[in-house]
Design goal:
The complex is a heterodimer.
Chain A (H helix, E strand, L loop, with lengths): L2 H33 L1 E4 L3 E4 L5 H7 L2 H31 L5 H9 L6 H11 L5 H8 L13 H25 L3 H9 L4 H12 L1 H17 L2 H7 L6 H10 L4 H26 L2 H4 L7
Antiparallel strand pairs in A: 1-2
Chain B lengths: L2 H35 L20 H4 L5 H34 L5 H12 L3 H14 L6 H25 L3 H9 L4 H30 L2 H6 L6 H9 L5 H34 L9
The chains are: A mainly alpha, B mainly alpha.
Chain lengths: 288, 282
């Protein structure tokens, strides 16, 4: 191959890589730099290796961090329970309705995330029919509310990130070789055994990808907590948003989001180490 | 199989489908609520998000009568257009390099494309803001454009790449055999065949940009996009026109997306009619 031919891929990659490096990687450096400053808004923040910002940002917000894990974790489990049978039905039972159902799964993306969440605020508001049904069924106390509770935030997170669970599960199930399930049944396993010992292990990559793609954005989200949770259900995203944009306490805000990024990088790298980048790139086993 | 087994199988078969219908209905609830409330009459001067006072077409007639909302929507459309053009162009080039070429640093490139998709928006927004604060770069349309292109690139690469993987290279070789220059082959064969993938990627980039609130909230300065406007007014009551415009946006993107899907399926059917080239099954 000539030198010129060998340079072609770098030319093609150049603009994109440059954009991602300058506007994704480099900003992380500046966020780290900001996290090591100290001072106040009025006197200005100066860089002085203020490592204490990191433990301080954690210890000051343990409640919100705990809530982020709890809410995002619960929402992820709920989304998995809702999405698995749905993805299974689309992959194996939908027949000619398959495209229609897939289309409906991505349809929420065609309306603004924020407006969708505000619509849920209306649906869950005190005077809504849904809440009176829940009160009649005694699932909510007669004078109780749904809005501004942890349940409302979890419901919002589950709803908003459900497509991120359905799509990787569907992509994985669609490739499942049904002959293996039949073989298990031929060898006298019950439907349940065949599911637990054949289908479930074979779709584990889809489950893990869906869990990551749901948990990570749900963990960092602050829209659901703000709109559906009121003032008492703040998550770590709300803290970062408020520290940056309202209180302008940049060092603490930067320290907290830097730690969040670090946590997610660790989780994602472990995942990619075992499963490759395929689940995120829309194909299997894309490694060189 | 016994009759009892058969009817159990039939029931289970249908139970799953019924479940799928219910789950999908659940996913569509807020969209229906938004569309229905766009016809909700409200007492003059009192802005609410509801349907307690009957049905009206008033807000569809006056959809574009709020100057601030119009301004925000036009900013969003402008931003989405520029962001889509830039991210689709550079993302498509990256996808071509990834599928067609051998080069060093593929693993690193893949990581650089994947990690932004797996990063919470609040971190992307915060880190960009950190950089702009450090450089004392004025926040506004430019910083929004930088951010929107950044988070759209990865998605464009993924979509175009999946289209390229199923690409029949024989067609390009045929063009070359017939005397086409590489550039002519790219323009007359590669690009038209790749077009549905590029259009789908562009549509996704457009939707991502129009929809974005979190990253924009950090990097907008005083510039107001459609979601930022909605957020701003959500505390004092949202004008019904927002529901109207959201419904319009939904209809336009849904129709555009179904056209792309339809076109892709048609292209696949046409490709299936062609005699299979040797070794294409691999």
């Amino acid at each position: 191959m000539s030198l010129r031919q060998r340079l072609v891929p770098y030319g093609l990659l150049g603009p994109g890589l440059l954009w991602l490096v300058v506007f994704f990687v480099v900003p992380m450096y500046f966020m780290g730099e900001l996290a090591l400053r100290s001072g106040s808004l009025t006197s200005g923040y100066t860089f002085d290796w203020a490592w204490s910002n990191f433990p301080d940002s954690l210890s000051g917000h343990t409640e919100q961090i705990g809530r982020s894990f709890l809410f995002a974790g619960t929402a992820t489990i709920l989304a998995l329970l809702i999405a698995y049978p749905l993805a299974y039905a689309i992959a194996f039972r939908a027949g000619r309705y398959r495209s229609l159902l897939l289309f409906a799964v991505i349809a929420p993306f065609f309306t603004t995330y924020l407006i969708r969440t505000i619509a849920w605020k209306t649906i869950l508001s005190d005077s809504s029919p849904l809440v009176s049904v829940l009160q009649t069924l005694a699932l909510v106390p007669p004078d109780g509310r749904v809005l501004a509770t942890s349940g409302a935030v979890i419901a919002g997170l589950t709803y908003n990130f459900l497509p991120f669970m359905v799509l990787p599960l569907y992509a994985n199930l669609e490739r499942l070789d049904l002959r293996l399930v039949e073989a298990a049944k031929d060898l006298y396993s019950s439907s349940r055994q065949a599911f637990v010992r054949v289908t479930l292990p074979l779709t584990m990559p889809g489950i893990v990808a869906g869990v990551l793609l749901t948990f990570i954005p749900a963990f960092g989200d602050y829209i659901n907590a703000q709109i559906l949770g009121g003032t008492q259900q703040a998550m770590v995203g709300n803290v970062i948003q408020s520290l940056y944009l309202n209180q302008r306490n940049y060092p603490e805000a930067a320290a907290l989001s830097f730690l969040m990024m670090a946590l997610i990088l660790v989780v994602v790298s472990v995942y990619i180490r075992f499963a490759g980048t395929g689940a995120f790139m829309g194909s299997e086993g894309e490694e060189d | 199989m016994t009759p009892a087994g058969r009817s159990w199988g039939w029931l289970r078969h249908n139970a799953l489908l019924i479940y799928a219908g219910l789950a999908v209905a659940y996913m569509l609830i807020p969209i229906v609520v938004i569309a229905v409330f766009s016809f909700g009459a409200t007492p003059k001067g009192k802005l609410t998000f509801g349907l307690d006072n009957g049905f009206t077409l008033e807000y569809w007639r006056t959809a574009f009568s709020l100057p601030e909302l119009n301004e925000a929507l036009s900013t969003s459309l402008r931003l989405a257009t520029f962001s889509t053009a830039i991210s689709t162009a550079i993302g498509t080039l990256m996808a071509i390099a990834l599928v067609r070429h051998q080069f060093h640093g593929r693993r690193l490139t893949n990581l650089l494309i994947v990690i932004p998709m797996a990063t919470p928006e609040v971190v992307i927004g915060a880190s960009l803001l950190s950089m702009f604060i450090y450089l004392t770069f004025a926040l506004g349309f430019t910083t929004l454009l930088i951010a929107h292109v950044m988070f759209s690139i990865s998605f464009v690469v993924v979509v175009v790449r999946s289209r390229l993987i199923g690409f029949d290279r024989n067609l390009e070789e045929a063009a070359a055999d017939l005397g086409a220059t590489p550039l002519a082959t790219f323009r007359t064969v590669t690009l038209p065949l790749l077009a549905p993938g590029i259009v789908a990627a562009g549509l996704l980039a457009f939707a991502l940009s129009i929809d974005d609130f979190v990253i924009s909230n950090f990097n907008s300065g005083t510039t107001v996009t459609f979601p930022l406007y909605v957020y701003g007014v959500s505390l004092r009551g949202i004008p019904v026109q927002v529901n109207v415009l959201a419904t319009m946006l939904f209809a336009v993107t849904a129709i555009a997306a179904s056209l792309v899907l339809w076109q892709q399926r048609r292209a696949e059917r046409m490709a299936a009619v062609r005699p299979e080239p040797a070794g294409a099954a691999a």
